[in-house]
Design brief:
The complex is a heterodimer of chains A (243) and B (309). Chain A is mainly α and 243 residues long. Chain A is 79% helix and 2% strand. Chain B is elongated, with a radius of gyration of 25 Å. Classes of the chains: A mainly alpha (243), B alpha/beta (309). Chain A binds chain B through residues 3, 6-7, 10, 13-14, 17-18, 96-108, and chain B through 49, 52-54, 73-75, 77-78, 80, 82, 84-90, 92-93, 97, 101-102, 104-107, 149.
């Protein structure tokens, strides 16, 4: 466990020495900030105009009269960020030859990958920390804030991010070219999003494709439902790409 | 019987359809510098990568200090320090950060890491660069950092894959000194295709050609691999070449520059005795007479040719 933590620490250090980690954090903060301020602004306008704002929690984070909320919008652009982060996780080591340092050290391949994944989970937590700022603002300002619903959606976004990351690391371990890893990750995300619309005329296929579709899973969380089926889905997908 | 630090048993490795290494077996006892010699593409790096656990062999077994690298890879790797052809460095870290990290993942106890880092920094003469980013160091110093990471955990076996590749002559001399210092306390296995390097640094040679082990022995044994069959002679008052050809034991004689001759013999002892006798009797003033050994290049070429057959 100690070795995994040490690898994760070194990976995180390396990640933040490169501008990509900072740039993506900045873009994420700006993009989510704009979305949240627009949603929040329209709620404030409604409140000023009508004296109250209906279903404020749902409008801000899930879906409401103003369109899609923050969690849904984050879910829709998250897959642009993750491949850029994960593309170099293993492929950079493969191309630079630094993987030989890890392979010739008394550590197992599983520990190496767990260390790299733990680093990505830390990064996901930083992204979640940015989102939690909006959550806290809403919690403090919205009357009768539906925290259980919104926190369930927050968990869904976090689990989806972690799943995207394991897929990204998997693709990165297949090639020494970072760009190929990024494009491959995009393709898998696309496939996992589109699979929900395939074979809808057949009952069995519809059930299977719906279950496989990643967006469908996290949408259930965003709708405020914490189903065991969805809770199992994410660890299963993570374990699948692990092997 | 002396305990072996490395034991390679019938190891073969295949990249897709082509065999890079075929049925190699050898043993390396404790201490000494072993040179893994071979031309480019002979399979040296593959053998080193297999020993260090970077790649898994297709067939055969490797034991490091008695531990099978397949059954107990972690136990085996604890005894190994490896410097690949391209040093496995993280350019964005400082020398100190990098070495601390390598000590960390090589199970150096937390409280000993600082001492271990200072020791290797001193040994590799890079203490003054400890706070410098690795990417800002010259090739020679990057190589030293690579060597430092390979010995930071005091392994019993240090494996260097072409350690002087791409260095200038001064750096090559310095790295060779460093390797000799390292070998005082542990076994060193280094690969090279440069014969002079083997002569300058190694005690023993393992030669690989076309994925097969074609020679294993001391540098002297390698040197004498081709039995000498010529005598080099110089005389102040040399006779005609026909006179020399008539000496018992010589089969042919050729004239070289500056009154020197190269004589081929059937029996070296008899031929040399006869030359001395005749020279004394005829006042040839023999100034030099020695058995001509084949050059290392010739032996290398001969062994390579043998492997190709």
């Amino acid at each position: 466990m100690k070795v995994i933590y040490k690898i994760a620490k070194r990976e995180l250090q390396m990640l933040f020495y490169s501008p990509i980690a900072w740039l993506l954090l900045l873009c994420f903060a700006i993009q989510t900030g704009i979305i949240f301020s627009e949603l929040f602004g329209s709620l404030v306008r409604d409140a000023n105009e009508y004296g109250h704002a209906w279903r404020a929690s749902k409008t801000l984070f899930a879906f409401g009269d103003q369109g899609e909320g923050l969690w849904i919008q984050v879910q829709s652009f998250l897959y642009f960020y993750i491949p850029l982060l994960t593309m170099g996780m293993v492929s950079k080591d493969l191309s630079s030859g630094s993987i030989k340092l890890l392979y010739s050290s008394p550590i197992s391949s599983l520990q190496i990958i767990l260390g790299k994944y733990l680093c990505m989970v830390f990064y996901a937590l930083i992204l979640m920390a940015i989102l939690s700022i909006y959550l806290i603002i809403a919690w403090c300002t919205v009357e009768n804030f539906e925290e259980a619903w919104i926190l369930t959606g927050f968990l869904g976004v976090f689990l989806q991010t972690c799943t995207y990351m394991v897929i990204g690391i998997f693709m990165s371990s297949l090639t020494s070219y970072q760009i190929i890893a990024a494009v491959g990750t995009f393709l898998i995300f696309m496939l996992m999003s589109m699979v929900g619309g395939m074979g809808q005329q057949y009952d069995l296929v519809r059930d299977i494709t719906y279950w496989l579709c990643i967006n469908g899973r996290s949408s259930t969380f965003i709708q405020g439902m914490l189903c065991s089926e969805d809770l199992i889905y994410f660890p299963v997908v993570i374990a699948m790409f692990w092997h | 019987m002396e305990k072996s630090i490395v034991k390679v048993e019938h190891v073969s490795h295949r990249y897709s359809v082509q065999w890079a290494v075929r049925d190699i077996s050898f043993e390396i006892p404790q201490r000494g510098i072993y040179g893994l010699l071979g031309s480019n593409g002979a399979g040296k790096s593959t053998v080193m990568n297999i020993i260090c656990g970077v790649i898994k062999q297709t067939e055969g077994c490797v034991f490091i200090d008695g531990k099978d690298t397949r059954l107990d890879p972690i136990g085996a790797k604890l005894h190994i320090g490896f410097l690949p052809q391209k040093p496995p460095l993280y350019g964005d870290l400082t020398v100190e950060e990098y070495l601390s990290h390598t000590a960390d993942i090589r199970w150096v106890p937390e409280q000993d890491i600082k001492t271990a880092v200072n020791e290797v920094l001193d040994l590799c003469a890079i203490s003054h660069f400890r706070k410098r980013l690795i990417k800002n160091l010259s090739g020679g110093y990057q190589q030293r950092v690579g060597i430092a990471q390979a010995i930071i955990h005091k392994p019993d076996l240090v494996v260097f894959d072409e350690p002087t590749n791409g260095l200038d002559p001064n750096q090559i001399v310095e790295i060779r000194h460093l390797i000799r210092d390292i070998a005082e306390e542990r076994t060193v296995l280094l690969s090279t295709h440069i014969l002079r390097e083997v002569q300058a640094v190694c005690d023993n040679i393992l030669m690989i050609e076309q994925g097969k082990l074609v020679f294993m022995g001391t540098v002297d044994e390698f040197d004498n691999y081709i039995v000498p069959n010529t005598i080099y002679l110089t005389m102040k008052n040399a006779p005609a070449i026909e006179v020399l050809k008539g000496i018992t034991g010589l089969t042919s004689v050729e004239k070289l520059e500056n009154g020197a001759f190269r004589a081929h013999f059937s029996d070296s002892q008899e031929a040399m005795e006869q030359i001395v006798e005749q020279s004394a009797a005829n006042q040839w003033h023999l100034t030099e007479m020695r058995l001509e050994k084949s050059s290392l290049d010739t032996i290398f070429a001969e062994l390579s040719k043998k492997a190709r057959r």
